[in-house]
C-alpha cells in the first residue's frame, strides 16, 4: 500500500499511535519501551515503529513540526491505515505562572492562529478539542504517578519566530496555558474522521520565566509523559 509519506503496508500500524514531533524521539520510545519492534517507515526520515507495550500493540511515529506536517501524517493514519487514536506527545512553551520546566499540560482545547479549518467550509469558528475519554484517563494516570500537570487550553501557532512581540501576552491574558504548533490540526483531523486524539505536552521552556531545556533533554527526558501515553 503505502502513501507518498508513509511506507507502511496495511496492518503494520497499530490502532493507537503515539506521535512526537521529533522522529528521533519516536526512535527513543521504540527502543526504550517497546518489545518486538518493527520499523514501518523511513520515508523522509519520519521514523515509525510498531511494537508491544505490556503485551498490547502500539505504534509510534514522528509528526514533524507544524500543522501542515502533522496534518498530513495524522490524516493518512486515520484514513489509510485505520488508526483509531493518535496521542501527540510533544513539547510546549509555557505561559501560565504556575507552570515550570518538565510540567505536563494536557490539552483540553487548542486555540490557533492558523487557517487550517478553512478547508471544512464551516459557517463559523470551530473549537478543536481533545477526546474526553483519553483526557480523563490521562488525568487519572498523572494523578497516580504524582506527575505535576495542568489541563486547559493551549494555542497551536503557525509562527515560531513571531514578528509581533505582544502575541504571547494576549494569549496568556485569555488563560491559555502554553504554545505549541500541532494540536489544533490533529484535533480537527480527528473530528472530521470521527476518531480520537489527545495532545500531551511537556513544558520545555517558559516564555515569561525565560527558562529552557536543552535540545538533548527535549529528545530523551520526557519519560513521565511517554509512560502516561503508553498506558492510555
UniProtKB/TrEMBL annotation:
> What top-tier enzyme class does this entry carry?
transferase
Q: Which reaction does it catalyse?
A: uridine + phosphate = alpha-D-ribose 1-phosphate + uracil; a purine D-ribonucleoside + phosphate = a purine nucleobase + alpha-D-ribose 1-phosphate; a purine 2'-deoxy-D-ribonucleoside + phosphate = a purine nucleobase + 2-deoxy-alpha-D-ribose 1-phosphate
Q: Does the keyword Transferase apply?
A: yes
Q: Identify one Pfam family in the record.
A: PNP_UDP_1
Concerning SUPFAM superfamilies, the annotation shows:
Purine and uridine phosphorylases
Write one Gene Ontology MF term. Answer: purine-nucleoside phosphorylase activity
Give the residues annotated as active site.
205
Q: Which UniProt keywords apply?
A: Glycosyltransferase, Transferase
Specify which residues bind a purine D-ribonucleoside according to the UniProt entry for this protein: 5, 180-182, 204-205
InterPro entries in the record, alphabetically?
A: DeoD-type, Nucleoside_phosphorylase_CS, Nucleoside_phosphorylase_d, Nucleoside_phosphorylase_sf
Q: What is this protein called?
A: Purine nucleoside phosphorylase DeoD-type
Organism of origin: Ohessyouella blattaphilus
Amino acid at each position: 500500500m503505502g502513501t507518498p509519506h508513509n511506507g507502511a503496508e496495511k496492518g503494520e500500524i497499530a490502532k493507537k499511535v503515539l506521535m512526537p514531533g521529533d522522529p528521533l524521539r519516536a526512535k527513543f520510545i521504540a527502543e526504550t519501551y517497546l518489545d518486538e519492534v518493527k520499523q514501518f517507515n523511513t520515508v523522509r526520515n519520519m521514523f515509525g515503529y510498531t511494537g508491544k507495550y505490556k503485551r498490547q500493540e502500539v505504534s509510534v511515529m514522528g509528526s514533524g513540526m507544524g500543522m501542515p506536517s502533522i496534518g498530513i501524517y495524522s490524516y493518512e493514519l486515520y484514513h489509510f491505515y485505520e488508526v483509531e487514536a493518535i496521542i501527540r506527545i510533544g513539547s510546549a512553551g509555557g505561559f501560565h505562572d504556575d507552570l515550570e520546566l518538565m510540567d505536563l499540560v494536557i490539552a483540553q482545547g487548542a486555540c490557533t492562529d492558523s487557517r487550517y479549518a478553512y478547508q471544512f467550509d464551516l459557517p463559523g469558528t470551530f473549537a478543536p478539542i481533545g477526546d474526553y475519554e483519553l483526557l480523563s484517563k490521562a488525568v487519572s494516570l498523572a494523578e497516580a504517578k504524582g506527575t505535576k500537570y495542568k489541563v486547559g487550553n493551549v494555542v497551536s501557532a503557525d509562527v515560531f519566530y513571531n514578528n509581533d512581540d505582544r502575541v504571547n501576552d494576549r494569549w496568556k491574558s485569555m488563560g491559555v496555558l502554553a504554545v505549541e504548533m500541532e494540536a489544533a490540526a490533529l484535533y480537527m483531523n480527528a473530528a472530521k474522521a470521527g476518531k480520537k486524539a489527545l495532545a500531551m505536552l511537556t513544558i520545555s521552556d517558559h516564555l515569561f520565566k525565560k527558562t529552557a531545556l536543552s535540545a538533548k533533554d527535549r529528545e530523551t527526558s520526557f519519560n513521565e509523559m511517554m509512560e502516561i501515553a503508553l498506558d492510555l
